[in-house]
Amino acid sequence: MHAMHMRAGAVASIASAAFAALAACSRATEADCKLIVDKSVELEMKGAGTASDAAAVAQRSQQVRVELDEQIRDCQGRRVTDKTMACVRAATTSEELDKCLR
């Protein structure tokens, strides 16, 4: 579980950067912002070898959403492109996700 707490910091860093990086075209919805958090959690767990099942990922995503509630609310309404969100959805590693959000 200690590794999960260390990973939470990495997820929070990626998600915070994502929220700051959203720019251009349309406005980010709550669903967009939560998708970024969920994808970040999924990829961090996959990279750490702890994404054993969808239920575990969903549970951890919910925990991180609670931890990042304020950042998620701040993210809503920021400018975001369809290209960025498509990139987020398609990312298969944390590094790819990070590139999507730069």
Polypeptide structure, described:
The protein has 102 residues and is mostly helical. The protein has one domain (2-100). The chain contains 6 helices and 2 strands, in the order αβαααβαα. The chain has helices spanning 2-21, 30-48, 54-67, 69-75, 82-90, 94-100, and strands spanning 26-27, 79-80. A two-stranded antiparallel ribbon has the order 1-2. Helix 1 (2-21) packs antiparallel against helix 2 (30-48), helix 1 packs parallel to helix 4 (69-75) and helix 2 crosses helix 3. The longest helix is centred in the first third of the chain and has 20 residues, at 2-21. The chain is globular. The model is unreliable at 1-6 (pLDDT under 50).
Task: Briefly say what this structure is.
Helices cover 75% and strands 4% of the residues. With 102 residues, it is mainly alpha-helical.
Give the end-to-end Cα distance, rounded to a whole number of Å: 30 Å
Mean pLDDT score, rounded? 82
The count of DSSP E runs of length 2 or more, i.e. the number of strands, is: 2
| Beta strand % | under 5%
Write out the strand line-up for the largest beta sheet, numbering strands in chain order: 1-2
Radius of gyration: 13 Å
- The helix/strand class is mainly alpha
User: Fraction of residues in helices?
Assistant: over 70%
Question: Element order, helices and strands?
Answer: HEHHHEHH
* Count of individual helical segments: 6
Low-confidence stretches: 1-6
Number of discrete domains: 1
Global morphology: globular
Sheet of most strands: 2 strands, antiparallel
